[in-house]
Amino acid sequence: MIFNEEFETLPREVLESLQLKRLQQVVQRVYHTVGFYRRTYDEAGVKPEDIKSLADLRRLPFTTKQDLRDNYPFGLFAVPMSNVVRLHASSGTTGRATVVGYTKRDVDTWSELMARCFAAAGLNKNDIIHNAYGYGLFTGGLGAHYGAERLGASVIPMSGGNTKRQIQILQDFGPTAICCTPSYALTLAEAGEEMGIDMSSLKLRVGILGAEPWSETMRQEIENKLNMMALNIYGLSEVMGPGVSMECTEGRHGMHVFEDHFIVETINPDTGEVLPPGETGELVFTTITKEAFPLVRYRTRDISRIITEPCRCGRTYVRMERVSGRSDDMLIIRGVNVFPSQIESVLMAIEGLEPHYQLIVDRVGTLDTLEIRVEVSENIFSDEIKGLQGIERRIKKDVKDYLGVTAGVKLCEPKTLQRFEGKAQRVIDKRTI
Ligand code: DLL
């Protein structure tokens, strides 16, 4: 089913002229309301009037996560705070999180786009949607919630965690759809089996799964275990949250990018050169309807490929292939985004630790694990066991409090971790997904 038949099936030429009109408006707006854009455009010698075609987009400089951090918290907002009705922030950050704001109209647009995603998954107002994305600063919970309500479905605002309770609700309320990360879908399936429940006999028909990378193998496993269709949904807080793109039940290959609201490009992450559609590179998004926090040419660091072949479903949008990796070192651990540098700053604030550490990421069963190995200084290491245990507890607590992830900790003797001559290789990611 198509939620907004008119916009989702616009002929390509009409869609592109709509994109150009909206792009010109957004570029004018950011130039005149956000100091950052005015400065960078002036430096690049480009004026909003220079955007005469969609191809001119590439004349504008990129925006990066660092720019967002430099303008923390509200420096890139294009409306006064009195027009902002909602704030979200990227998960897992010490001091400088990525903060995003929404006007009432932005929340409306987002709700519609999420409703489009649910409709693309074959859902309508008769469905019951179990929403196990986390509610809070993370965009997953509220984003899916508002979309489900816009569709008119009945939403169960479960949020994350509390697995046994989730399983009980899945049995008792009989939801027909579930929203969660793909790894949590597997966790639920396995926990249910362990409780002696036949998880394939639940009423679930479809899962709207995303927020972390996953594979076709994982899709099959989830589909077999939960006896439902597993569809991929993509998004990022900076651009909006979930619902930037979504797979449909018909195509099941690549996620439709809602191009009446976002312009997508792929670039070579090393040179910044724009790649022709079909070539693998880093995704760059421009939001063309957002009011509070418009972003022009935002480098996502997500690696994918644009598919231009038409889809059976009738939507005229391009699709993006499942994200195959990132062009930076961001880790996604149980759905939480973490940069090694953030762990480093937590560690370095603790007395007695040396600046030598290693992060071991693995997947045990369906759950991501993180082990932090860090060297302690000589005098502490020869100290009594109690002192060491105290440091270990402090690391665990601070990492959990500041970054939102649970980590195992192994304190190492001084000078035992590997040293590097060039770029330090601090992360060992053993996960195969
Ligand atoms: O993860 C928004 C979201 C919520 C998407 C629920 C889908 C479902 P952030 O926390 O800002 O926002 O993290 C964004 O997560 O840049 C990707 O690296 C990764 N990501 C999101 N969806 C997918 C996906 C939400 N389907 C970052 N496949 C993005 C692979 C994904 N990676």
Which word captures the global form? globular
| Backbone CA Rg | 23 Å
**How many beta-strand elements?**
21
Count every helix, treating DSSP H or I runs of 4 or more residues as helices: 12
Runs in which pLDDT lies below 50 for 5 or more consecutive residues are none
CA(first)-CA(last) distance: 31 Å
Topology:
Layout: H1 5-8, H2 12-33, H3 35-44, H4 65-70, E1 86-89, E2 99-102, H5 104-120, E3 128-131, H6 139-151, E4 154-156, H7 163-173, E5 177-180, H8 182-194, E6 206-210, H9 216-226, E7 229-236, E8 241-246, E9 255-257, E10 262-267, E11 281-287, E12 298-304, E13 306-307, E14 319-320, E15 325-326, E16 331-333, E17 336-338, H10 340-348, E18 353-364, E19 367-376, H11 378-381, H12 385-403, E20 408-412, E21 427-429
Parallel strand pairs: 3-4, 3-5, 5-6, 6-7, 18-21, 19-20
Antiparallel strand pairs: 1-2, 7-8, 8-9, 9-14, 10-11, 11-12, 12-15, 13-14, 16-17, 18-19
Helix pairs in contact: 2-3, 5-6, 7-8, 8-9, 10-12
The structure holds 5'-O-[hydroxy(phenylacetyl)phosphoryl]adenosine (DLL).
Residues 90-91, 133, 138-140, 210-213, 232-237, 241-242, 300, 302, 323, 326, 332, 337 line the site of 5'-O-[hydroxy(phenylacetyl)phosphoryl]adenosine.
